[in-house]
Write a structure and sequence with these properties.
This protein has 326 residues and is an alpha/beta fold. The chain has a single domain (5-315), classed as Aldolase class I (TIM Barrel, Alpha-Beta Barrel). The protein has helices at 27-36, 48-60, 64-67, 69-97, 118-123, 144-159, 177-186, 222-235, 250-259, 268-273, 277-292, 308-315; strands at 5-7, 10-12, 16-18, 40-42, 46-47, 102-108, 128-133, 166-170, 191-194, 202-204, 209-211, 240-244, 263-266. It has an 8-stranded parallel β-barrel, surrounded by 7 helices. Helix 2 (48-60) runs antiparallel to helix 4. The longest helix has 29 residues, at 69-97. It is globular, with a radius of gyration of 21 Å. The termini are far apart. 39% of the residues are buried. Residues 64-68 have low confidence and may be disordered.
Length: 326
């Protein structure tokens, strides 16, 4: 079976990508992903907020920086340079030691700090850039429009710095997901990754503290991405769609492809089963294709969107009885 697929203008051996996580944070793991058959890898994210907080913490710990602003600025630039330098080396090493596409990931919350470093990611050899944008709407004075404007501003700022393809990874919590996805596509996004799985807080009633034990996804979570992959694909959006969250097995990959995804991203299942499990997922896709008589991915990609009743099913929000007379 031919599993070759196109994503962000890149040719992948198959549609299974290892998503941004600690699994793609070391060159050893990246090599393991490539050996197991990954179509591509998205490197562990470079977090804008985390780096800035570390810098600010260093400055707060020594009041001398208060009296010497020029020293403060020097420390900021040096710290940023160090963090980015390590990341650039990871990109460079990954490109030298593997033959699969390497996608850099930047987690950013504003268009001010990091877009100018995008060119460095490109120069280090990144085949594409994935913008992981997550802005928490906890300010009552910030409108939905303002938040969406920030997403678009970040994308445009990065696109102005690079020539490599740029994908945007978003969460599912928008007033109108269809509208923001189309707006991002119209603003230059080459791809959209649906969806980011956010930190899930819980309360430990024994310690009465906030904890997080729910760090892994479950297969049931795939339906959120499945709905929007199908609807956006059917709408003809001019951006490649990559499904993320809740994809644990080959059947989950097949479902997303049937809905119209260009690729799928996996993470939790590799933590639970090992990176080598990629080979089982890919083998499962091949077996399903052989059983159903499909010689290549394009033969069935988006197939469910060819039937209006399927689209109606994805648009439905409420449960309804089949027999309204009962």
């Amino acid at each position: 079976m031919d599993l070759t697929t196109k994503y962000l203008g890149l040719t992948l051996n198959n549609p299974v990508i290892v998503s941004s996580s600690k699994l793609t944070g070391t060159i050893e793991n990246i090599q393991s992903c490539a050996k197991a058959g990954a179509g591509a890898v998205v490197l562990k994210s470079l977090f804008e907020e985390q780096i800035i907080e570390k810098i600010e913490g260093k400055l707060r710990s020594n009041e001398a920086y208060f009296w010497y602003p020029e020293a403060s600025e020097y420390v900021k630039n040096m710290s940023k340079g160090s963090a980015i330098g390590d990341y650039l080396k990871l990109i460079s090493d990954a490109k030298k030691l593997t033959k699969i596409p390497v996608i850099a990931s930047v987690n950013c919350v504003s268009p001010l700090e990091w877009p100018k470093f995008a060119a460095k990611l490109q120069d280090a050899g990144a085949d594409a850039i994935e913008l992981n944008i997550a802005i928490f709407p906890n300010d009552r004075n910030t409108s939905s429009q303002q938040i969406e404007d920030t997403y678009v501003d970040i994308l445009k700022a990065v696109k102005a710095e690079v020539k490599v393809p740029v994908a945007v990874k978003i969460g599912p919590y928008f007033t109108n997901t269809m509208a923001i996805c189309w707006r991002l596509a119209d603003s230059g996004a080459d791809g959209l990754v649906l969806f980011n799985r956010f930190y899930n807080p819980d309360v430990d009633i024994a310690s009465q503290k906030v904890v997080t034990d729910n760090v892994f996804s479950s297969p049931d979570e795939k339906s959120v991405a499945l709905r929007w992959i199908a609807l956006l694909s059917a709408s003809g959006i001019p951006a490649d769609l990559s499904a993320s969250t809740g994809i644990h097995y080959s059947i989950g990959v097949v479902k997303q492809l049937l809905a119209g995804a260009a690729t799928t991203q996996v993470c939790t299942t590799l933590y639970q089963n090992g990176i080598h499990y990629l080979a089982d997922i890919i083998k499962g896709i091949e077996e399903w294709m052989k059983k159903n008589g499909y010689k290549n991915i394009d033969a069935f990609r988006g197939l469910v969107n060819q039937h209006p009743e399927n689209t109606a099913g994805f648009e439905r929000l409420q449960y309804m009885r089949k027999n309204f007379d009962v």
